[in-house]
Specification:
Strand content: under 5%
Order of helices and strands: HHHHHHEEHHHHHHEEHHHHH
Number of strands: 4
Number of domains: 3
Subcellular location: Nucleus
Oligomer: single chain
Distance between the termini: 43 Å
GO cellular component, one term: nucleus
GO molecular function: DNA binding
Main location: nucleus
Keywords: DNA-binding, Nucleus, Repeat, Transcription, Transcription regulation
Length: 313
Amino acid sequence: MGRSPCCDENGLKKGPWTPEEDQRLVDYITKHGHGSWRTLPKLAGLNRCGKSCRLRWTNYLRPDIKRGKFSQEEEQTILNLHSVLGNKWSAIATHLPGRTDNEIKNFWNTHLKKKLIQMGFDPMTHRPRTDFFAALPQLLALASLHGLADPSIRLQAEAAQAAKIQYLQGILQSAAAISTSPSTNSISSMGAASTDLDNISCDLGSPLMGAFTSVPSPSNVHDQQPLGLGEEIDIPYSLFEVPMNNDTHEQCSLSYTDDSKIPMTPLLSQSSLPPLTDFSLLNHEDACGTSDEKNATSWPELLLDDPFMTDFA
DNA sequence: AAGCCATCCAACCGCGTGCAT
DNA sequence: TATGCACGCGGTTGGATGGCT
């Protein structure tokens, strides 16, 4: 695919926009619309590339842009959507009228990400942070189960297991990255997949996997077995106190799990787990017919087709 | 007052994708 | 099918600003 030579052209101004330039751009777009961004600068009498004009307009000059601090509701919405969509800033921005993807991205990077980290959550997975070394005892236990007495062989086996763990994590995380299709954008759609999620958590519930699926499946929060290190993760169910009660957030509103009657905040509700649940993969509706039938083939089966995964079975 | 550092955010850069030819 | 163009997106940069020593 060809690359746009747009900004490679010399002689075009870069850097901060002057009020005069802003006025020219606003005047032109108000009168004619932006049309082709590439030709706009010439027509508007601006010594800028079209890309720069587009960015200036969409991120700053557009009349419907909302300015000022993000509200608690907006913050909550971003957190929820990010747990589902990941760094799909433009997709997130469509749910926040008046906010630009750039603004949301900046807000995330400067505020929300730090906030999650401070709370002990991984900002990418929205789960309590776990690291490789936390799972090391599990790896060693598994290795010993395999009767690996020879230290050198055991080390090799542990390294191999570690690689498998990382491989699995990669699969799971990439799955999360995929889940951006319109059918999966709605948080409410996540509920429909909770059964699959439960199955997954159960099927992947080997001791080894337990170390990496550190958030209990919502339906079994209460009977969650201690994790690999024998410690139960204390999950703050009310990380953010503002309830989601306006129209925009209706589908994220405070809910209860079917069996436990535990109020689930959006952040850690059933819908908060999608990093492990790629519903486009789970449902296969587009490619494989009806979802009910195809849901019978769930993640574990798919994963176990992989030679690496057979070791976990 | 001056220097250093951290934070914020507008703007840039490079890549992927859709579309036309 | 291959190519080029235009656009949108996400990651990153760097200047402005404010707080601290």
